[in-house]
Amino acid sequence: MTDRVPFRVQPMLATLVREPFHRPGWVYEEKYDGYRIVAYKEGDRVTLFSRNAKDRTATFPAVAETVASLAARTLVLDGEVVSFDRRNVSRFQLLQNLSSPPKYAVFDCLYLDGRDLRKALLSERRAQLERVIGKRKDATILVSARLAENGLKAYQIAKRKGFEGVLAKDESAPYIQGRSGKWLKFKVHQEDEFVIVGYTAPAGSRQHFGALLLGAYAGAKLQYVGKVGTGFSQEALASLFRKFKPYIRAKPAVLNPPREKDVTYLAPRLVAQISYGEWTNDQKLRQPVFLGLRDDKKPEEVTLPGLDR
Questions:
Q1: Torsion angles phi and psi, residue 21, rounded to 5
Q2: 47-51 long-range contacts, Cβ below 8 Å, gap at least 24?
Q3: How far is residue 53's CA from residue 295's CA, in Å, rounded to a whole number?
Q4: What pLDDT digit, counting tens, does each position of 95-120 carry?
């Protein structure tokens, strides 16, 4: 048997739904807040790829080492690299700052010792996953948590514990590359990606910039959705400001730019993770907080929540 995995996958993506639900034959898992990672174990070699096929092996060496220690000779795992807070809730900001050790929460097994499992039922893939990972003392890798058999109860558990949301999956479904209706997600906390389209001038003691202007796509059109001025450390302000310089442009990329003075516009190249309270009636973010940059998402993938997500 060769040690080479004969394929590379585009991860299966969940479709956002507005309300929690329960359906017979579906399972309900914790939705993690981190980086989507597909791990390939080919003999003694392990590579980790992000959802847009960037090699993250050097970024998460402890995860790669743990996958390498698994008994399978060839293996493909799909999961999320996360960092947990003291309440065991995954937080993207902790992962961004590397202030908590990264863990690999695995929810799918696509290949095992020469067998392609992508067409197998989710229930079978899950059984193989649990067998491969087993009960390990090494906490760097874990099987994704199932919350409850009933989707509405799973939502209540996620809400009580402060999870980002719930992933609902059809147990009879194969692994479908790209976005699918066989995996659905409903959120507990409002958190999404937005494109950085500019920044305002700093005021008072603030250095580098005041707030980021944000946008999201509705079809081919980039719409302005508000600005975020909180969540930045001094280091983040300086680091972001350096990243902005190559993207400065004279005119706004958004259709409905804010009517403000001292605005510097940027080409839509950088994606930010933002938490927020809710949407206003005029489609602007209320109480947004900057969590970090994402380089595993393309700006064109950032659509207004509820539109093809």
A1: -155, 170
A2: 48/81, 49/8, 50/296, 51/10, 51/11, 51/13, 51/296, 51/297
A3: 11
A4: 987 778 899 999 999 999 999 999 99
Residue 11's contacts (CB-CB under 8 Å, 6 or more residues apart) are 36, 38, 51, 78, 177
Nearest to 52 by CA among 13, 85, 26: 13
155, 182, 179, 157: which is closest to 166 by C-alpha? 155
Cite the active site residues.
31
Mean pLDDT estimate for the chain: 93
* Structure-block tokens of residue 228: 């975020």
Hey, what amino acid is at 30?
E
Whole-number Å distance between alpha carbons of 7 and 55: 15
pLDDT band, very low/low/confident/very high, at 278 (cuts 50, 70, 90): confident
3-state DSSP call for residue 309?
coil
Phi/psi of residue 206, nearest 5 degrees: -65, 135
- The answer to whether residues 164 and 147 touch, using CB atoms and an 8 Å cutoff, is no
Q: What percent of the chain has pLDDT over 90?
A: 78
Residue 164 phi/psi, 5-degree rounding, is -65, -35
Question: CA-CA distance, 120 to 118, in Å (whole number)?
Answer: 6
pTM above 0.85, yes or no: no
Helix spans in the chain (H):
61-68, 92-97, 122-133, 151-161, 234-244
* Longest distance between any two alpha carbons in the chain, whole Å: 66
